[in-house]
Amino acid sequence: MKHLIAPYRLYVLLFLLLLITAEICWSWKKDKHAYEIQETFSNLAVLAGFQFSKYVFAGYQLAVLGFFARYSLFTLPQNAWVFLLTFFGADFIYYWFHRFSHSWKPLWAFHLIHHSAMHMNLTAAYRLNWFSAIISPLFFIPLALLGMPPGFIVVSYALNLVYQFFLHTEAVGKLGTLEKIIDTPSSHRAHHGSNAIYIDKNFGGVLIIWDRLFHTYQPETEPVVYGLTTGFLSNNPFKLVMQGFMDWFTPVKSPKDPVTSTVNSAVLPAKG
Question: What is the pTM of this model?
Answer without folding.
Answer: 0.88
